[in-house]
Amino acid sequence: MAAPVLSIENLRTRFFTKRGVVRAVDGVSFAVTRGQVLGIVGESGSGKSTVGFSIMGLIDPPGRIVGGAIRLDGRDLRQLTPAEWRRVRGRRIAMIFQDPMMTLNPVLRIDTQMIEAITAHERVPRATARDRAREALGRVGIGAPDERLAAYPHELSGGMRQRVAIAIALLHRPEVIIADEPTTALDVTLQGQILAEMQTLARDSGAALVWITHDLSVVAVLANDVCVMYAGKVVEQGTVDNVLDRPLHPYTRGLIASVPSRHPPGRPLPQIPGMMPSLMQLPLGCAFRDRCTRASDTCRSDPPLYSLDERRVRCFHPHVEEDEAASASERAEEAP
Amino acid sequence: MLLFVLRRLLQSIVVLLAVSGLVFAGVYAIGNPVDILISPQADQAEIARTVAALKLDRPLWEQYLAFLQHAATGDLGRSFVFDAPAIGLILERLPATLELAASATLIAVGLGIPLGLWAGIRSGSLAGKAILAGSILGFSLPTFWAGLMLILVFSVELGWLPAGGRGPTQSLFGVPVSFLSWDGLAHLVLPALNLALFKLALVIRLTRAGAREALTQDYVKFARAKGLSEARVIGVHVLKNILIPVVTVVGLEFGSLVAFAVVTETIFAWPGTGKLLIDSIGVLDRPVIVAYLLVAVTLFILINLLVDVLYSILDPRVRMAQAGG
Ligand SMILES: Nc1ncnc2c1ncn2[C@@H]1O[C@H](COP(=O)(O)OP(=O)(O)OP(=O)(O)O)[C@@H](O)[C@H]1O
Ligand SMILES: [Mg+2]
Predict the structure, then answer these.
(1) A48 lines ligand 1 (CB under 6 A)
(2) Does the beta carbon of A41 sit less than 6 angstroms from any atom of ligand 1?
(3) Which of A183, B18, B79, B222 could form a disulfide with A103 if both were Cys (CB 3.0 to 4.6 A apart)?
């Protein structure tokens, strides 16, 4: 297997707010290779965006990355000076944000916002930069690019704006693209279109794609690997085939069961009961245990992330065949 | 756009009419100028003659109607004291006031935006807190006291700048201005600073609040995600969004700057309309007071119109809405 272009090791990011410390990302590790897609799934507030912003070096105070490494081609970005990290952003790692209505500056024209993205990393004449911007718009399927370039963001639809953001992200052919739920704010037909386009664009440019979403069905069609996050931690990670077809963690199971398309119509959709606990006052032990039907007294201590059945899982009581179950929980307790 | 301007002008005339009525009644209520204008030794006949000459014996509504008739031709009455057209007296002094107000605005914006940006971006730092504290002080210091302190420090103690008067003026397109000569500029600095103080505090706070808000916005994060330099993120992405409220407020406040100039002009003996107004109130020179207030209101209306136009130039979203509706 090729060496990963991006690998995250034990990343920990916290927000030091007045009301307490938020452990938004707590020991997340993963790796992606070129041409591959990694899905990060989890419900709202599980720390997915914070992972993305940490990789970009864009955690604003009161937040701070407190531990771990973010390696791009083996080089830890956290060791870079701010100026060096700036040169990575947009050029080697690009990010597309959650809400296309908010990501473009409302008082600057599209051409300004695209050209500055080019000239931030390359010394090219304005006219050349403009040509490249026009081409980039064409690549993401925007017609009449000259007209769009002269427009302000509010003159474009949501889908159009997200395409502009994608075009900006692709400008420098980055090695890694982080897409933070780029289609959630769009209607369903557009979602499918943009999804498919992103997939081709990433494959053509050979970029590694980190796709953040709370929608498992998107991961199922798009990703090679998946990380399931809960309350700032990875609870299960592995290939999409393994994790989605044979989920081991009760939370992953719950997520899959609540996907509408996988469920016979007419019957109520099963929901995971309860709510994710506040990341400010996480109870000791498994953060999911209050919502978990399999929880036992063992779950009052922290479950480690350990290897089982060709993936990694963080649970004392994974959904495995009965005869395997005993050995699995033994292994869990032995793991460091 | 043209329609918009026309409609606004029509509204303005109605406002002017209403204000003139109010002002007229108000000034009438203040007191009888005859008591002040005519020497105590004058006899009954002389008083009657003066009163008749000034048409002060007519009922109020008749005086007002006569005033309106003349006003329609641009004549706002003759000053009792100077025996000259009131409007002429005011227009003669208007450049001095406008120059003072414009200089104060320049100071408020030129200093206020950088300071406010600094305070907004580094709101936790010592400098940021000091700027904020300074702006609170600027809000709460009375203008006349600050003016006296400026004179005390820079004129009396240090002797760097003149304490009052306008100094020599040069003619720029036929308008007398101070800022073209060093001596004139020296005369302008203290009063302009005094007048600017309050607005400076306002601009600092507006800019600071705007910067803090903009910095939490996705578009700033996205600008950083593109790898833009911090200078470009702040100087273009943040600043351009802040400019909209700042320009609007500063523009709208220009009128109140002209009004506040009354205090500053009195302290610094600046020969502008404010000083004329105070002098005229002292002797109940009604036509001048009325004319001043009407000119001030006209100025306010013009400024509002200008700000609306400027605002739509700065904010593309407003531009759209106007084109559409
Ligand atoms: N600037 C901040 N200050 C304080 N807490 C923050 C900040 N940003 C995020 N958090 C907290 O960090 C946690 C993770 O947030 P994050 O935005 O990463 O979640 P997410 O998984 O992306 O959720 P969503 O699906 O809603 O986008 C949340 O509990 C959130 O409240
Ligand atoms: Mg998010």
Answers:
(1) yes
(2) no
(3) B222
pTM listed for this prediction: 0.82
What pLDDT digit, counting tens, does each position of B15-42 carry? 888 888 887 777 777 666 666 666 667 6
| ipTM value for the complex | 0.89
Tell me the residue type at B260: F
In angstroms, the CA B218 to CA B238 distance is 11
- Asked whether the beta carbons of residue B320 and residue A155 sit closer than 8 angstroms, the reply is yes
Residues of B in contact with A106 (CB under 8 A): 219, 241, 316-317
Cβ–Cβ < 8 Å for A181, A211: no
Atom of ligand 1 at shortest range from CA of A280: 29
CA within 13 Å, CB half, A82: 6
Triad A10, A11, A14: Cα angle to 5°: 135
Residues B103-144 pLDDT 10s: 999 999 999 999 999 999 888 888 888 888 888 888 888 888
CB contact under 8 A, B237 and A105: yes
- Alpha carbon distance A67, A13 (integer Å): 7
Sheet of A63-72, strands arranged across: A20-32, A6-17, A63-72, A75-76
List chain B residues with CB under 8 Å of A89.
224-227
Residue of A nearest to B238 (CA): A105
Look at A53 and B226 and tell me if their CB atoms are within 8 Å: no
Is the distance from CB of A242 to CB of A309 less than 8 angstroms? yes
Tell how far the Cα of A45 is from the centroid of ligand 2, in angstroms: 7
B227 Cβ under 8 Å from any chain A Cβ: yes
How far is Cα B196 from Cα B253, in angstroms, rounded to an integer?
11
Q: Among A15, A44, A230, name the best residue to mutate to test ligand 1's pocket (greatest count of ligand atoms within 8 A of Cβ).
A: A15
Measured N-to-C along each axis, helices B286-314 and B273-282 cross at an angle, to the nearest 10 degrees, of: 150
Mind listing the pLDDT tens digit for each residue in A120-146?
999 999 999 999 999 999 888 888 989
Q: Are B216 and B75 in contact (CB under 8 A)?
A: no
| DSSP H stretches of helix in chain B | 2-30, 33-37, 44-53, 60-72, 86-121, 126-140, 143-150, 182-215, 218-225, 230-232, 239-267, 273-282, 286-314, 316-324
Name the band, by pLDDT with cuts 50, 70 and 90, for residue A328. Answer: low
Residue A91: predicted pLDDT: 94
Q: Are B294 and B19 in contact (CB under 8 A)?
A: yes
Report yes or no: B236 at the A interface, CB cutoff 8 Å: yes
Angle at A11 between CA A10 and CA A16, to 5 degrees: 135
Q: Which residues contact A21 (CB under 8 A, 6 or more apart)?
A: A14, A15, A280
Contact in structure between A112 and A152 (CB atoms under 8 Å):
no
Q: What percent of chain A has pLDDT over 70?
A: 93
More confident of the two residues A324 and A295: A295
Q: Give the β-pairing of A63-72 and A6-17.
A: antiparallel
**3-class DSSP state for residue A96?**
strand
For the stretch B240-294, pLDDT in tens is: 999 888 888 888 888 888 877 888 888 888 888 888 888 888 877 878 888 888 8
Q: Residue B97: which of B262, B313, B243, B310 has the closest Cα?
A: B262
State the Cα–Cα distance between residues B111 and B250, nearest whole angstrom: 13
Q: Which residue of A has its CA nearest to B316?
A: A107
- How much is the pLDDT for B319? 62
